[in-house]
Amino acid sequence: MLRFRSLASGSSGNATLLEASDGLRRTRVLIDCGLGLRQLTARLAAEGLALADLDGVFITHEHGDHLGCARSLLRRHGVPVWTSAGTAQSLATPGTDAADAPQPRLVRDGQVFSIGGIEFHPFAVPHDAREPLQLRCTDGARSLGLLTDLGHVTAHALAALGGVHGLLLESNHDSELLARGNYPDFLKRRVGGSHGHLSNAQATAALTTLHHDRLSTVMAAHLSERNNRPELVRQQFAAVLGCHAADVLLAERHGACWLGV
What we know:
- By secondary structure, the chain is an alpha/beta fold.
- It has a single domain, classed as Ribonuclease Z/Hydroxyacylglutathione hydrolase-like (Metallo-beta-lactamase, Chain A).
- It has nine helices and 14 strands.
- The chain has a seven-stranded mixed sheet. A seven-stranded mixed sheet has the order 7-8-9-10-11-12-13.
- β9 and β10 form a beta hairpin.
- α8 packs parallel to α9.
- The longest helix is centred in the C-terminal third of the chain and has 12 residues.
- The chain starts with a strand and ends with a strand.
- 46% of the residues are buried.
């Protein structure tokens, strides 16, 4: 069984807990840890878990709302961390990177790797980071796609996520709200640019392409508190999914419940 739980979502922090169990073993992997160590520990404890219960962490890119306490998890708590070479540069601690210090395990676009009972297929996305990656994750029976923090949806990303059974999809901002909002112009250009974040319209277009009969779980993620409204996302996703707007799942700032894939 493959399931996931958003522990945090949005510009204040992002973390998604992924779990697979086949009856013989259980694997738990954290996708991003954009929280302080105390916050992360508390949110895991609410699930009856400790840092020692994590089999690994994958960091999608180096922005603070995703990197968070990754350095502490790797160096002080011995939790293995996987990430790209570009992102790994932000895990270095000047003057303390001795040869025997724990180092992140490096992966790149298209390099399949496994953590316990979960297989990961990383793919590159256009975002203003050094080497950002997103993921397709599978336990061999079911698959989950994660697609956040990108300025536009590429054919490469759509191909990587074709046929997934579950999808965590960024729907960051409404373009009109962003344009009318109080962000400075440079930040509006950054958020709405080709290497920024997906608008509701872009997310809906991606969902339309990826939607199929076996796509059973969809959650909208990374909603902007200033430049979006939950009801806008729900309305647009519901039109694609053929459900009531109230039934569309959102990853809230403080997380969401467990969802099976």
